[in-house]
Design goal:
The protein is of the alpha+beta class. It has two domains: 168 residues, Rieske [2Fe-2S] iron-sulphur domain (Rieske Iron-sulfur Protein), CATH 2.102.10; 194 residues, Naphthalene 1,2-dioxygenase Alpha Subunit, Chain A, domain 1, CATH 3.90.380.10. Helix content is 15%, strand content 31%. It contains six helices and 20 strands. The strands form five sheets. It has a seven-stranded antiparallel β-sheet with strand order 12-18-17-16-15-14-13, covered by helices on one side. Strands 2-3-4-9 form a four-stranded antiparallel β-sheet, with no helix packed on it. The longest helix is centred in the last third of the chain and has 20 residues. The two termini are 17 Å apart. The protein binds fe (ii) ion (FE2).
Length: 374
């Protein structure tokens, strides 16, 4: 798992003033909205005695720990310690990790890492989101896979004739034309022409009188965990952006957003959602059975062919990130104040306030190289 990227942690609709707990990258986060509706993402661990802030409540812009009532501002600084006599200064170390937060495309994104703003990779682009021709539906799909396997599956063009033979894959046309990976900022995209069978159900109705022709399909990825699929069907365009959120080393929640230019009335949303979930369910047994569970670091550990160019590009960029020290699954950090072992991803404030660098992080417990926790 990688730090120093933006992660979509929740849907906008899930986040309100009442704190929400989200587990991602092996860490607990708390998300809430300030009085003005601005989303805030923090580590869900009170610096005092390790209370879960998500069990607390909000007070104006602050979140209150349910244990001793410590109040934290959106930036992570403690604003009030109720047991302190009036006028007692609050120590600078009294703060929790707060992460830069953005609301975009109906997701709450947090920058999980400590890079200064100018050096942060961007949130992936999705120009279609603001195009009124498109209608959006959302959903979650949880599976027992390492997120990198889910990401590679999301960009894999060659598996559709086999895994999706019953839906949009065409077993009679397994050939993939050679393609170039278009390098985009922190990612890669590729476009090919496929010949899927006409869709069944309601979508099939629109196919009447439509000429059968190849379907231009673009697939690709944005680091570290986003895949994009764009399909130019004869009945209209469809774009699916999926944020494969690593919960831990063995669990992923794929948070998807599907945009379509056809059947844009809300009445058809349920059908679109059902189709998206059906595709994940077709993928699930195959991806969950992959060995090794974790994507190998060594590019020669698996055999690649021409149609794997996108995945090779993903693995190369991922390795560059690991080489830069952005991997966060090599250490398990135990806090002084909690028996529960917790991974704590450093927030930007740790660089800005030097005495925070090691604050309340007591012990680093090495774990095995393959990512298995001891
Ligand atoms: Fe698939």
């Amino acid at each position: 798992m990688l730090k120093n990227f933006w992660y979509a942690l929740a849907f906008s609709t899930e986040v309100a003033a009442k704190p929400l707990r989200v587990t991602a990258l092996g860490q607990e986060f708390v998300i809430y909205r300030t009085a003005a509706g601005e989303p805030v993402v923090m580590s869900d661990l009170c610096v005092h005695r390790g209370g879960a802030l998500s069990d607390g409540w909000t007070k104006g812009d602050c979140i209150v720990c349910p244990y001793h009532g410590w109040e934290y501002e959106p930036g992570g600084a403690c604003a009030r310690i109720p047991s302190y006599p009036m006028g007692t200064p609050i120590p600078r170390k009294a703060r929790v990790d707060a992460y830069p937060t953005e609301e975009r495309y109906g997701f709450i994104w947090a920058f999980l890492g400590d890079l200064p703003e100018a050096e942060r990779p961007p949130i992936p682009p999705l120009p279609e989101f603001d195009d009124p021709q498109y209608r959006a539906v959302y959903g979650n799909f949880q599976w027992n896979v390492h997120y990198t396997r889910a990401v590679e599956n999301g960009m894999d063009i060659a598996h559709t004739p086999f895994v999706h033979a019953g839906s949009f894959g065409n077993p009679d046309k397994p050939e993939i034309e050679s393609y170039e990976v278009e390098g985009v900022e922190w990612g890669g995209l590729a476009t090919v022409t496929l010949e899927p069978p006409p869709p069944t159900g309601i979508w099939g109705m629109l196919y009447k009188n439509k000429e059968r022709r190849g379907v231009r399909t673009s697939a690709g990825f944005y680091m570290p965990n986003v895949t994009r699929l764009e399909v130019h069907l004869p009945i209209g365009n469809m774009v699916i952006l999926t944020c494969h959120l690593p919960v831990d080393e063995h669990t992923t929640i794929s948070k998807w957003l599907m945009l379509r230019t056809f059947f844009t009335q809300p009445f058809f949303d349920g059908d679109s959602r059902k189709r998206a979930v059906a595709i994940f369910k077709e993928d699930q047994p195959t991806v969950e059975a992959q060995r090794p569970e974790l994507l190998p670091y060594d590019l020669s550990a698996e055999l690649h062919v021409r149609s794997d160019a996108l995945q090779i590009s993903f693995r190369r960029i991922r390795n560059e990130c690991l080489d830069k020290g952005w991997g966060i699954d090599t250490h398990l950090i135990q806090t002084e104040f909690s028996n529960k072992k917790a991974v704590v991803i450093p927030s930007p404030a740790r660089r800005e306030i030097p005495e925070l660098a090691q604050a309340w992080v007591m012990k680093e417990v090495p774990i095995q190289k393959n990512g298995e926790r001891k």
